[in-house]
Amino acid sequence: MELQEVKQSETHLDNDSYFVKDKSVMTSALDVLTALSSSKRVVLMAKGDLIPNAVAVANIVTENMLKGNSRIEDIKLDSVITEEDGQMISNIEIVLLKN
User: Cα–Cα–Cα angle for 13, 80, 61, nearest 5°?
Assistant: First the structure.
């Protein structure tokens, strides 16, 4: 995934996508729970230092809030090297399904 694609994915999210931002994990978990109430599928997306937050949100939703009524369907990991400074940035997508 190129850097331009990463930037586009942040601004052109699908209806079932949730980009994890730097805010409280519980607030993000509630946002995802709300999204799952209207859609049976949500894709959590995060990059860099926010990846642990996305994992925590996925665990909170599937193990605590919707225990037995949701599951993690898929996890995708990748890394890109930025053109500006050559740093590597990791990305994660976690697909959550509500039963």
Answer: 45
